[in-house]
Design goal:
The protein is of the alpha+beta class. It is built from 12 helices and 26 strands.
Length: 599
């Protein structure tokens, strides 16, 4: 049996070695929503620097028109040559083009679909001992590049001892990627970040979370979809060093090791497989790209990266198995991302394939579900009794395939039938939904993050909306020197982009003053760095000597967040309903299980 992949409860976060100065341009733009995906991702592609004259400048790369014409002409000639060459390699069966190198083609079967010749990211047998499945690239990825689309994380509270153990092993620690304003429990992140294996200090990918919580344009003021999707979209998979084609993508889990001698092996090897092996035995992972959905109130959606023929694989979807679906509260957001069995079973399944959790519902679907034929799908487990299944199953042992029910055009939105129960529940929700008042709530992303902040004294006369709180970057959070007894600490400028989890303390502005040297207003704040899932109003009766005071804090190091449990995810009337697992895929011997047999 394979070694089960588990993660530590607290993730050690890998960061880039490149550094750039913190400026106000790094703060999320006002009014940022997923309906404009280009603005949502703008932080990831813009570099801001601070010059010696204290001017903030944005670095852009422009290509001269003459160079563009020369490149276009060259590409045209090359494309023409490649077209003529590939015509001679058309397969007679299926009329598909062979894009594989000539020296490899004798050892490979023909591609099973047009997608295989275009795919760049695969799920295949890991090259790391006991690694199970791994993520591979079939093209060179330069240092600083990205692997796949930005990922989605879902905040989830995992109850203990009630049949949800598998989910714990495939979730990230509380402080992994996002600040605590919307956080409770752990973070389930679908796609590449959960599928990749670890190689500790030799890993080639880091996970960064540059984006603010985003409601994808679904607000409590105008959409019944508000609170029905995760706000935590924008988990980037950044390449730490040049990755050659055929290399397995790995990520440092932190304080985690394979047992025994296998630890030494994984430290020494560069995980790699021949391109032929990957294409022949792997499953394509980049047929899906994420964009704003065309369906009303759906938020984000999954779209076809390329044409997909009828019956072809769209995406693999390894499953986390839940023994008792009632382990979760009715308002748990994860319910919207899991499959439940309708016919007399307490089991549920959570898919974590790349892009799969963005596929929306339609009664006219263009994709369906089936069990995978890949050898890493342990289909023999489906023949066991339920008791024996839970004795032997592990996360990812069962793999679904999302496949095309008909020909799918490039850029066509992918839709799946969630079932009658889901549609009935959604229609009832829409019918009874009531919009919320704009007087009682303000989205943090709608505020101007460059605006001068009010002190706690000024807020007595002019308070901010009650759902808002300030979060600060504390540069001494991981510095043991900050433990020394001193009344105040002076802010220390960092020379890197601040990430989502860096805003690690609640804070209250006590004072502010214009600094002529820095040519900006600097703040004195009182930090609240413990118990980040809890927020406390400023208590002026506590002596400053007993407070954690930080001085000379620049405005970009302070930003707005929702107070705990004030985000749309926690709306009392937010939509919650799981998807129906296909009856024909569920073993008959598991369908008549009573509540008592699984408790």
């Amino acid at each position: 049996m394979e070694t089960k992949k588990t993660r530590p409860s607290q993730l050690v976060h890998v960061r880039h070695k490149e550094s750039i100065h913190l400026t106000s341009q790094m703060v999320t733009q006002r009014g940022n929503t997923d309906r404009g995906r280009s603005s949502e991702l703008s932080q990831a592609v813009t570099l801001s620097t601070r010059s010696t004259s204290k001017e903030n400048r944005t670095v852009s790369i422009l290509r001269p028109h003459g160079e563009s014409r020369r490149i276009f002409l060259g590409l045209t000639l090359v494309s023409a040559g490649l077209f003529c060459t590939t015509l001679s390699h058309i397969y007679q069966a299926g009329h598909r083009l062979d894009s594989l190198p000539r020296q490899e083609s004798s050892n490979l079967r023909p591609p099973t679909s047009v997608n295989d010749s275009l795919c760049r990211i695969y799920l295949a047998e890991s090259s790391i001992p006991n690694g199970g499945l791994g993520v591979f690239t079939t093209e060179f990825i330069p240092k600083g590049g990205q692997v796949g689309d930005p990922g989605l994380c879902i905040q989830v509270h995992i109850p203990e001892g009630v049949g949800a153990d598998q989910l714990f092993s495939h979730t990230h620690g509380t402080n992994a990627f996002f600040f605590g304003a919307e956080r409770h429990g752990r973070q389930f992140c679908s796609g590449i970040s959960t599928i990749v294996n670890t190689q500790m200090k030799r890993s080639n990918m880091a996970i960064t979370a540059l984006q603010r919580p985003s409601n994808a344009g679904l607000t409590r003021f105008d959409s019944p979809g508000a609170g029905a999707i995760s706000l935590h979209y924008g988990q980037f998979h950044s390449v730490l060093k040049n990755i050659p084609a055929g290399t397995e993508i790995t990520y440092d889990y932190g304080d985690w090791e394979l047992p025994g001698e296998e630890t030494k092996v994984t430290k020494q090897i560069m995980p790699h497989r021949p391109l032929g092996f990957i294409r022949q035995h792997g499953m394509c992972m980049d047929n899906i790209k994420v964009k704003p959905s065309l369906i009303a109130h759906a938020g984000r959606g999954a779209f076809a990266s390329r044409a997909i023929s009828t019956g072809d694989l769209v995406a693999p979807a390894p499953l986390i198995m839940i023994q008792n679906k009632h382990a979760f509260q009715e308002n748990e957001l994860l319910r919207n991302y899991m499959f439940e069995v309708v016919s007399g079973s307490l089991m549920a399944f959570v898919p974590y394939g790349e892009g799969v959790n963005f596929i929306n519902h339609s009664r006219k679907p263009n994709v369906g579900l089936r069990w995978s034929t890949n050898k890493f799908h342990r289909g023999n487990l489906l023949t066991l009794s339920e008791h024996d299944f839970w004795e032997k199953a592990w996360p990812g042992a069962l793999i679904l395939e999302v496949y095309a029910l008909r020909f799918i055009r490039p850029d066509e939105e992918l839709v799946l039938d969630y079932g009658d129960s889901w549609e009935t529940a959604w229609n009832n929700h829409v019918k009874h939904w009531k919009q919320k008042s704009k007087l009682s709530y303000v989205y943090p992303s709608d505020l101007d993050e460059t605006e001068v902040l009010r002190t706690v004294k000024e807020q007595e006369m002019h308070p901010y909306p009650s759902n808002l709180a300030m979060a600060c970057f504390n540069p001494f959070a991981d510095d043991s020197s900050s433990d020394e007894e001193q009344d105040e600490l002076e802010f220390r400028m960092t020379e890197r982009v601040l990430e989502e989890e860096d805003y690690n303390c609640w804070c209250h502005v006590l004072d502010k003053a214009y600094d002529g040297k820095e040519e900006e207003i600097l703040y004195t704040v009182s930090l609240q760095c413990s118990g980040r899932s809890e927020y406390h109003d400023y208590d002026s009766s506590i002596p400053k000597s007993q407070q954690e005071i930080l001085t000379k804090v620049p405005r970009p190091a302070i930003r707005w967040e929702n107070k705990p449990y004030q985000g749309d995810q926690f709306l009392k009337d937010a939509f919650r309903h799981s998807m129906a697992f296909p009856e024909n895929l569920f073993p008959e011997q598991w369908k008549r299980v009573t509540s008592a047999s699984t408790m």
